[in-house]
Specification:
- α5 packs across α6.
- It contains 22 helices and ten strands.
- 60% of the residues lie in helices and 10% in strands.
- The chain is α/β, with parallel strands linked by helices.
- The N and C termini lie far apart (72 Å).
- The strands form two sheets. Strands 3-2-1-4-5-6 form a six-stranded parallel β-sheet, sandwiched between helices. It has a four-stranded antiparallel β-sheet with strand order 7-10-8-9, sandwiched between helices.
């Protein structure tokens, strides 16, 4: 006869191999715990609504006879929602089926028999790790009003407010920052508790037998001690004897010291986490951006290029391992992260689809070695990603090609060719200089021919021919990767081609919108 442990093992193997079950469980986990899940924010808003509804009903119930359906909604519906959430969090915390399989493999290796008791113990131990977490305790207390027969338990509705830490990022961030100063805060708590206890006992001994003193019980003594050390000082209780006033002076000074110490703890915690908080904010912003240029290395050359791209409405993300370069990029108004672009870990932390979301990667380092490492790293992650790199030494051209750089820009050669072509042509030089000027309204821009523009190609050419302040220079042919000038006899435009135009920035932007109508 088969034992319960064997049936449990069969079920565990079935669940672990079931793609539907695993997919469903992963989906529930993402909604509950994964901030990158697009549905999580709707779940969070729903839970926040439930929390505030519950508290408002509790407050309204004090002096107003609320409708029975509101009380039913608060006691049963909201509590049921919180109960279901608690059960789901307990479920997705770990994999029970994997625990059973691991136990079976271990016991088989040790020639032991798998028992139902070892399964229950192992699963129970793992689940207890979840139950004893502070956030889980708050969740459990939030369910307590379900047992509304004991009226006092309705006060536990207030614990639902603490659940906001789960659903609001700023509160979660504040909590995580304070956790880094756990030792200092615990030390401060014990110091305050000690001072309060000693001062409460002293003030009680010195004031309780004085008929003129308002402090007559230990409870009043503790209340006075707490109010005084917090520097609130309501004035409803106060010592009347000289000895009592001496104790009050000591505790007032201690209160000032406690406030100073606690303030310094919080400030130092945020200072230590400041860079991490900034990076997390940038990461959150990046996840909202669909198409952008990924720039590796921030220097004077990339600064000038990115300023022009930004003015043309392009989205830009900067990665640099140099902290000063990142701060400069942030100061210039770019999204920048202190990540090393030569390491795969950096792109894993970005958590983005490189092929889908990145238009091009611009490797702008002053070192050919770094540019090659950036390219190799990116190509190992996403083979189809387009990489443009700056070449510093012509002798490294072949190495760039072997690394997989798609477009190699040798700045010295470009400068030499430009100087050669424009020498003795001052007007042409001034025209090109005017085009590259950031402050100039006239820009050189690209229009990519997509499905929405294809039906309007004839209209576009008509606009250009009739002189609507837009000059079409030519198009980049995607099929043979070559540039064709508009004046060529065989000039044509097809889906995927990129048009190169000169015109006013506002007019070109309006033209793009008009063509994609």
């Amino acid at each position: 006869m088969r034992s319960l442990a064997n049936y449990a093992l069969d079920l565990a193997i079935f669940l672990e191999s079931s793609t539907k079950y695993q997919s469903f469980k992963h989906g529930v986990y993402r909604i509950l715990e994964d901030p990158t899940c697009k549905y999580k924010k709707y779940f969070d808003f729903f839970m926040i609504f439930m929390i505030f509804s519950s508290v408002l009903i509790l407050v309204g119930e004090v002096k107003i006879d609320l409708k029975s359906y509101l009380l039913y909604f608060n006691i049963y519906i909201i509590s049921s929602v919180f109960l279901m959430e608690y059960i789901l969090r307990l479920w997705v915390y770990n994999s029970n089926s994997q625990i059973i399989i691991d136990l079976y493999e271990r016991d088989t290796f040790l020639n032991k028999k798998l028992t139902i008791f070892s399964i229950i113990y192992k699963i129970g131990t793992k689940k207890f790790e979840f139950i004893k977490k502070p956030s889980s305790i708050v969740d459990l207390l939030a369910i307590t009003p379900f047992f509304h027969e004991v009226r006092l338990l309705r006060v536990f509705v207030l614990f639902r407010v603490f659940k906001l830490f789960r659903y609001t990022q700023s509160m979660s961030l504040f909590y995580s920052v304070l956790k880094t100063k756990k030792f200092e805060l615990v030390t401060l708590f014990f110091f305050v508790t000690l001072v309060m206890s000693v001062s409460a006992v002293l003030i009680y001994v010195m004031e309780a037998n004085n008929p003129d003193s308002p402090i007559n019980t230990m409870y009043e003594a503790f209340y006075w001690s707490l109010v005084t050390i917090s520097t609130v000082g309501y004035g409803d209780l106060y010592p009347v004897s000289d000895y009592g006033r001496g104790v009050a002076m000591v505790i007032i000074i201690s209160g000032i010291a406690v406030l100073s110490f606690s303030t310094s703890i919080v400030v130092s915690a945020f200072n230590e986490k400041f860079d991490e908080i900034k990076d997390q904010k940038v990461l959150d912003d990046i996840k909202k951006v669909k198409n952008f240029y990924l720039v590796c290395g921030y220097n004077e050359l990339s600064r000038n290029l990115l300023t022009r791209l930004k003015n043309n409405g392009r989205n830009i993300i900067v990665l640099d391992s140099n902290h000063d370069a990142v701060n400069l990029a942030l100061k210039d108004g770019f999204r920048a992260l202190n990540f090393d672009p030569t390491k795969s870990k950096s792109y894993m932390e970005l958590d983005i689809d490189l092929e889908k979301n990145v238009i091009k990667v611009l490797s702008m380092y002053d070192s050919d070695v770094q540019n090659i490492y950036v390219t190799l790293t990116l190509k190992s992650i996403c083979e189809n990603i387009k990489v443009v790199a700056i070449l510093q030494k012509k002798s490294n051209y072949k190495k760039y090609q072997l690394a997989g750089v798609d477009d190699i820009i040798f700045t010295q050669e470009l400068i030499g060719l430009t100087a050669k072509e424009l020498s003795g042509k001052p007007i042409a030089f001034e025209a090109i200089n005017a085009l590259r000027s950031i402050d100039n309204e006239i820009i050189l821009d690209e229009i990519k021919i997509d499905e929405r523009i294809v039906p309007h190609i004839d209209e576009l050419l008509s606009i250009v021919k009739n002189g609507y302040k837009v000059i079409l220079i030519g198009s980049y042919k995607i099929e043979n990767e070559s540039f064709s000038f508009y004046l060529d006899d065989d000039f044509s435009i097809k889906l995927g081609d990129v048009l190169l135009c000169i015109g006013k920035k506002d007019i070109l932007n309006e033209l793009k919108i008009y063509l994609r109508r």
